[in-house]
């Protein structure tokens, strides 16, 4: 799969993405608001699973590489997965390498994948979750038109707390 935007390209993972993926997933800033900081085994397992997603029919999970369109430089990852088939609800998530924050790449990638989900995956609803302290993710959600439905309290762990 490949989606081309004005400045970003979203594509399936390939073996050449392994090193970048490990660096991104292991970076302290990209896991700051996550349940835990993944270890090398978890990162390797996640990468290997992402390589298998394109073979699933129907495909209900897309973990994709975000690249700069002009030179295919790896910028980050974006994913969308089917949460609730009956109501056609999909969940989107993303992580860009901190080196590429504040350039608009994540906003363009999220818009591109949301458009694909509504047109090609027959999505009815797309949800995203972010830690309440992750202001950057919340602002990105607002920019792409995701409406805040509420705040989940004491339902997720952040760094094992």
UniProtKB/TrEMBL annotation:
This is Protein N-acetyltransferase, RimJ/RimL family. GO terms for molecular function: acyltransferase activity, transferring groups other than amino-acyl groups. Residues 8-161 form the N-acetyltransferase domain. Gene3D superfamilies: 3.40.630.30. It comes from Paenibacillus typhae. Keywords: Acyltransferase, Transferase. PANTHER family: [RIBOSOMAL PROTEIN US5]-ALANINE N-ACETYLTRANSFERASE, GNAT FAMILY, PUTATIVE (AFU_ORTHOLOGUE AFUA_3G00765)-RELATED-RELATED. Pfam families: Acetyltransf_3 (PF13302). Belongs to the acetyltransferase family. RimJ subfamily.
